[in-house]
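Hi U.,

Before I forget, here's the chain from the pilot set. I'm dumping it here mostly so it's searchable later in email.
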Amino acid sequence: MSAISAAAVNELRKRTDLPLMECKKALSETGGDLDKAVELLRTWNAKAAVKREGNEVAEGRVGIYVEPAAETAAIAELRCESAPSTKSDQFIELTYDIARQVASAAPETVEQLLAQSYSNGKGTVKDRIDEVVGLIREKMIVHRFERVKAPVFGSYVHHDGTVGTLIACTGKPTGPTDEVLKDICAHVSALNPLYQSPVQVPAEVIAKEKAFILQQIKDDPKNAGKPANIMDKIADGKLKTWMAETVMTEQPMANTGKYPNTTVGQVLTKLGLTPVRVIRYKVGAMSV
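Structure:
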């Protein structure tokens, strides 16, 4: 067999992003056939992924993809072993690709997702992940994902990728929505409200909170002797404050300079939108 040329090795490296020595070895074993060498490298990368199956994957990124034409969006959390890897271009791109795959191909489970044909290249989604595993040399898993259908979306991913929010809305927008909905998603990412709107707060939760507030009021000596109806009004005021801290639409916008004295619900109403789904992912935490 003739010697493998440097040009062939470089071409394979361009196609796979893998180290030169691995590319040269793959070409040597496939007689210089580029396509066969690519497939061989995929096999090696899959083996590399298997070797790392027992490794802990505590780091990761959140990725979001929105397809307005299809009224579809997806959010995904991809995990790896180390924080530096989450900042690599390859891992960032892979996280985005996984979210896009979920939006376009609608898998119901991680197993289905991995077995799907990769929508933007050859092989399966697992092959796509294994390529990056072979490059970065860390275990990687798709931890979770969700897909949503709606006419209007907004999204935000924090600069380090550790937290991101996707909001889906219905309605007829009265103006541009991208910047405002991004601000709302940034608000949710930062403050993590427990509920989306007042109607989503269970009645038993409200009753329990009000009972707790009433007890605190009764225990305060300065309220001694006040009529029951006055105590009840005080409790209602404190309950309203609790709702403003706990429920997204009741919360004042975090960016007070841009949205002074304005709640999230008021911003959405002004836009002509109603939120139907809000998904917040934080790496290592459960979604809200």
